[in-house]
Amino acid sequence: AYAYIYALDQDLKAIGTQLTYFQVDSGEIQNFKRHFTLTELEVFFQNLVANYLKWAETVVRWEILRDKSIGELQFPFGNYRPGQREMAVDVYRTIKINGQQLIQAATGIGKTMAAIFPAVKAMGEGLTEKIFYLTARTTGRFAAEYALDELRHAGVKLKSLTLTAKDKTCFKPESACSPEECEFARGHFDRVNGALTDMFAQVAFTRIAVEQVARDRRVCPFEFALELSLWADCIICDYNYAFDPRVYLRRFFLQENGEYAFLIDEAHNLVDRSRDMFSAKIYKQPFLDVRRSIRKELPHIYKSLGKINSWMIKARKKCEESGSTCHEKTAPEDLFPLLRIFLKRTERWLSLNIKKPFREELLDLFFTISGFMRVAEQFDESYVTCFEKLKKDVKLKLFCIDPSIQLGQAMNRCKAAVFFSATMTPMDYFKKILGCDANATGLILPSPFPDENFKPFVYDKISTFYRDRDKTKEQVSQAINTLVSQKRGNYLIFFPSYEYMMMVVQFFQSDCADCEVIIQAPGMSENEREEFLNRFSRENHQTLIGFAVMGGIFGEGIDLVGERLSGAVVVGVGLPGISLENELIRKYFADHHNAGFEYAYQYPGINRVLQAAGRVIRTETDQGVVLLIDQRYGTHRYRSHLPGEWDPVKVQSQEQLAQALQKFWGRQEIKI
Known about the structure:
Elements: H1 2-9, E1 14-22, E2 29-37, H2 38-72, H3 84-96, E3 100-105, H4 111-124, E4 130-135, H5 138-153, E5 160-162, H6 166-169, H7 188-200, E6 204-205, H8 207-217, H9 221-229, E7 234-238, H10 240-243, H11 250-253, E8 260-264, H12 270-278, E9 280-283, H13 284-294, H14 299-322, E10 325-328, H15 336-350, H16 359-376, E11 383-390, E12 393-400, H17 404-410, E13 416-421, H18 427-433, E14 441-445, E15 454-459, H19 469-484, E16 490-495, H20 498-511, E17 516-519, H21 526-534, E18 544-549, E19 567-571, H22 580-593, H23 596-613, E20 624-629, H24 636-639, E21 649-651, H25 654-671
Helix pairs in contact: 1-2, 2-4, 3-4, 4-5, 7-8, 13-14, 14-15, 15-16, 19-20, 19-25, 22-23
């Protein structure tokens, strides 16, 4: 194209061209020379422009149609739920003023639609170019897809993409991701334009739809989805595509101040997720394994791995001297040059595309170290270097204690950000830890459901402190038995740890022999999780008790509507376990905000508690109870963080609890 324009400008009948490749590491140069007539170049150029013009006209026609339909769009459900309109108005205002907002909206308000609808209206008015719906869970993605489908049924023309992780959507997971080994990668760019044309005729670019077209056109499904993202109006994806320094979508976010709106679902999860995204870890063993594999073939890489392995052995000795863990406030600066040498030498060899049995193993290590070094570039006073001895292995982690700095920087990638969740308590904590600017606003919306359908109880005469658990486990078991024996139904019992849960389960199974008990197991598969939840049926003929861990797979993100769940018991205040990392968080925020215990333990704990309790009432017709067991609920420090509309009943004995429960369930029977 450039040769044609130059020849035309200089009135040339023909022109010579040269394409030069320069290998940075080796200095090798390859030249490809061609001679073209002006007529040849004109045919090429006109075909190129004609194809692009056809695509551009298609996109422009779509945008005109989209904006017209958005202008005519009405709220799809006729009436707003209580609190839903208020949330929608605030989301629209936030996008209009290029602001940031945190919203705590109780279950049942319809948060997903209250976020997406005003964002779509703002798009139709040119206030945002693209909507990113960011979520941590599959259920959040399904909710967003459902909301967009409802808007389409209401008449809006909108293209959305659900971006799925590469490892989940790959058609050839057993093969190397290269044109030599994967037919979907081989020739991908020759066929992708046809795939884009096929897909653009649709509006919902879901995983199923993307994979179907990718198979038909024989293109890489993940790379195809990334191409589609450029033409989608709304992108539904995991947090990491906006925030993770290793995988964020550079096609959108390399430049700051993009005309994008971020809708951040279940934003309470972003705290821990961002710490993970901004941290990086490496282990000694993979260096040793790869070194053994390449010993006779790649002496230069073998030598660099030997130096890294020696460094890691010294780190292991340092751990042994301190017990099993230790940390430093400074970065391991003497390790970084060794890793850079490994990356440089390995990249040079990988570029040769030589097939060897160890290639994939070496490539995996290359990517791991590349990601580690990308995080290392951000190391500052909000980081520490952690070491942990694991038998003969050692783990080195660059741990991000305070993610607020990098989250704040990441917010420059969009023009407006809305963080929303059912639990953002206390809001000032989330404003700081999520890196919001000083002008960020907050909104708290109470439950829209009838107060009389839900009754929380606080039993603050039992200590669940670690030192007291063995003494009080029988009392905890009796309290659970008292709650579940008042009404046949299904119940979830949440504990702060698996170990504590099993202490109480042993007593409970003998106390409540006529109940069916199921227990969350560590590392449950998807099928096992589904089987666990399916046991919570309306047709159960005896009371079902599910024991689970707070903050885990059953502590949030599940819907057990109606009589599938009659109540929940939350044992303890949900504090995370004491660990090196949590203690580092405590010390850091004690020094910087005079709130170390709160940031490291109390606030994460209370949000786990509220998430667990939130499983009980999911619709306006649900009825249920929650029992909080811990003497700390009797103190202002914890009680002040319970939702204002709860007004919990304080009980001080098993008898009081039984009477209060009988009174509540008696009223429900009268209503029915």
